[in-house]
Design goal:
The chain is mostly beta strands. The protein has nine helices and 59 strands.
Length: 728
């Protein structure tokens, strides 16, 4: 299609949009209609194209060349009406992070939109393309001279990120790190290295609670490697005894795709990927940590800016900057990402792709309101997919490390936050988020900490090293997780779930009896931070290496309703007012761990397939109600914990599922489940709805129903013995 035809189509599209807005204006109150009519009349389109010039006016015929120039023009035009910056296909290598401030804001009636032209691939890159003269080094390895002062964080060949020279070599069939060796930096190995300074050690936590990272500083005369780091986990430990590897070591350059950059000699070495001719390939390096920032404040927010249809690529890794503890959770964080928002309101990312970014993909830090991430494909990120993380300054009586405890006499007992420096009323909807945590393992496709009322809806999430969705503590609840499809999680770590939460809030103490005493004196104590219920409903979960839903230490004020749990069951560790109703626990059951005396917990109206699996339940009565459930296994399973007040009215029987082999676990008319109050919920609404994403999204394997032997049902799952439970 020629330029004139494209121009006419754009003109027609604009006219249709204006007609739609005018139709809307007729339905609005007179004052609002007048504002919208003015915005329509003053609407401005600006164009950016790789062949443009910043000296041009930014029209379709004479587009700008850079987004920075378009930003200047959009800022001036936004004062008069709506602005759409139309970004034509091509790669835009950002010289520096593109920062939007309050001065770039739009309004509800006249938003500012930066959008890729329909059908065109507009890539925003934090890297640079290298034009290199390759020559043979040795053994199939090529070398090329690089520009002065070039620092290379990652190397992309034909759009694919390549591994640094590493040991052991990357193997996609090995789940943990793509390969590991306990002796990867032993003196015998390090003796091969002339100068390992600048290399990295990546190692799992000794209990597999995420990963840690170290920068190699050198080696001594006995070839013992020296290093710094290990601060990336809020439950510090030694390195895992087996799961570790090294990278960025020149002498380990020996496999296709591997590379090493010697900054001192300005030489890039690369073992070409199989089937690739480096002399004709596109070779790109990464420079920037952040590509786009929306940076405002509560007093002067960035408002009504939309990023639409764009691809974000080439953001630097940030694992050595991941240092900030997130209260008493197991996590630390780095406040940054390829797209970074702070002090933003009513801003959106729509239909974007975040492709192989090195750290967090999207990070909403501190004060943010009504941020929307919709229809996005986020994959292969080094750390989190989408993170909402408030400021600890908004938390009353904050503690930061697991071992810290409160003097209860000195706790601030005012409910809720002490400020509003946190994300609230935000949404992640209809997104496909896969294979995050390529570098940092204590991460999640959706991470929530010190935030309120975050909605995650119709997302497909899978192939991740730890949880699919993680909520770090109870501050301040009100989250809604619904219609999501989350599976293939906890692939590289342990003691976790497809959904994971902690609740080590103001009320929590690692000694249960201390909490029992303090809550008896002040029953409002557990709800000072978890002030609103968090709801998980109508989701499908599968975790083959942990629990489907893991409500860990102190998690409080949860509603678990109408979820399909395909493998790992429901764990409820100590906490208050967790109400689990109308769930189907396929081939598994409830895992009650360490409940408080008067927890107020409810487990009612669920279908379970085995006896409960308790750990350290040293109380006579379990919760408020554990009853009116359907056991598919045996009368022995139903009656096993009758002495603890459980399941007097529960029943045993065949649930009469409609078509479990195909994943339809609705029950037929006449099912005994209906007698306990169970209600069918949809089995065809899990995961993404957007056609383009649904066409490429995977779904979980549906397990065959099984009836485990009685002895097997009583055998604790690995990691859930009393000793292991107390360690958590």
């Amino acid at each position: 299609m020629d330029g004139d035809s494209i121009g006419k189509m754009e003109e027609l599209e604009t006219k249709r949009a204006l007609m739609s807005h005018r139709s809307l204006a007729r339905l609005l109150p007179p004052a609002s209609a007048a504002i919208l009519a003015t915005a329509i009349a003053c609407a401005v389109d600006l164009h950016v194209a790789p062949g443009g010039k910043d000296s041009q006016p930014g029209t379709y015929e004479q587009p700008f060349a850079t987004l920075q120039r378009a930003q200047q023009a959009a800022r001036a035009a936004a004062a008069k009406g709506a602005v759409t910056v139309r970004i034509h296909g091509g790669t835009y290598y950002l010289a520096e992070t593109l920062v939007f401030t309050a001065a770039d804001s739009g309004t509800e009636q006249a938003p500012v939109i930066y959008r890729a032209e329909p059908g065109q691939d507009a890539v925003l890159s934090g890297g640079a393309r290298l034009e290199l003269q390759w020559r043979l080094y040795r053994d199939g390895i090529l070398q090329a001279s690089t520009p002065e002062d070039l620092e290379i964080d990652q190397l992309f060949v034909n759009g694919q990120r390549q591994p640094m020279a590493r040991y052991p070599n990357y193997d996609p069939d090995v789940l943990v790190y793509g390969g590991y060796d306990r002796n990867c930096f032993a003196p015998e190995r390090a003796a091969r290295w002339k100068d390992p300074a600048g290399g990295y050690i990546h190692a799992m936590h000794s209990a597999s609670w995420g990963g840690m990272h170290y920068r190699i500083t050198g080696k001594d005369a006995e070839n013992r490697v020296t290093y710094e780091g290990g601060w990336q986990n809020n439950r510090p430990s030694r390195m895992h005894g087996e799961h570790r590897f090294v990278e960025n070591i020149f002498e380990e350059l020996d496999a296709p795709g591997e590379w090493f950059h010697d900054a001192k000699t300005r030489t890039l070495y690369c073992y070409p990927p199989e089937g690739v001719d480096l002399k004709t390939a596109t070779v790109e390096v990464v420079r920037l940590r952040h590509l786009i920032e929306l940076r405002g404040s509560k007093e002067s927010p960035v408002r009504w800016i939309t990023l639409q249809g764009l691809t974000f690529r080439h953001a630097a890794r940030t694992f050595m900057e991941n240092k900030e503890p997130l209260l008493r959770s197991d996590w630390t964080t780095y406040r940054g990402g390829a797209v970074f928002l702070t002090g933003a309101e009513d801003c959106r990312l729509i239909d974007c792709e975040l492709d192989q970014v090195g750290g967090n993909a999207i990070f909403a830090s501190a004060y943010n309101r009504r941020i929307a991430v919709r229809g996005c494909h986020i994959h292969e990120s080094g750390a989190n997919g989408v993170a909402f993380v408030g400021s600890p300054d908004a938390v009353r009586s904050p503690l930061f490390n697991y071992g810290e405890t409160f003097d209860y006499a000195k706790i601030d007992r005012t409910p809720g936050p002490r400020g509003d420096d946190y994300p609230a009323d935000c949404i992640v909807e209809d997104c496909l988020i896969t294979r995050n945590g390529r570098v940092e393992k204590q991460t999640a496709p959706v991470q929530i900490s010190m935030a309120e009322s975050i909605t995650v809806r119709h997302c497909s999430i899978y192939e991740v090293p730890r949880a699919g969705i993680n909520i770090s503590e109870g501050t301040w609840g009100g989250h809604l997780i619904e219609f999501c499809d989350i599976f293939d999680t906890v692939l590289e770590t342990g003691d976790h779930g497809s959904f994971n939460s902690w609740g080590r809030d103001r009320y929590w103490h690692p000694d249960l009896r201390t909490v029992d005493r303090e809550v008896a004196a002040d029953p409002a104590l557990p709800f000072l931070d978890a002030r609103r219920p968090t709801v998980l409903r109508n989701n499908r979960w599968r975790c083959d290496h942990g629990w489907d839903i893991d409500l860990d230490d102190g998690s409080t004020n949860y509603r678990i309703e109408s979820n399909l749990l395909l493998r790992g069951g429901l764990k409820m560790r100590e906490g208050y007012r967790r109400i689990a109703t109308n769930n189907i626990l396929v081939n598994d059951t409830l895992h009650p761990h360490c409940w408080f005396e008067k927890s107020g917990d409810v487990f009612r109206g669920n279908i379970v397939m085995g006896s409960y699996r308790p750990a350290v339940m040293n109380i006579a009565k379990w919760g408020e109600t554990v009853d009116f459930n359907l056991f598919t296994t045996s009368e022995d399973d139903r009656a096993r914990f009758a002495k603890n007040g459980c399941d007097e009215h529960s029943i045993v029987g065949d649930p009469m599922f409609v078509d479990p082999e195909s994943g339809d676990f609705r029950v037929r008319d006449g099912s005994p489940a209906l007698a306990i109050g169970f209600q069918n919920f949809p089995m065809d609404r899990f995961g993404v709805r957007k056609p383009e994403l649904r066409a490429i999204a995977r779904t979980p394997e549906i397990p065959a129903l099984r009836q485990p032997a009685g002895a097997d049902r009583m055998r604790p799952r690995k990691g859930t013995s009393s000793a292991a439970s107390r360690s958590r």
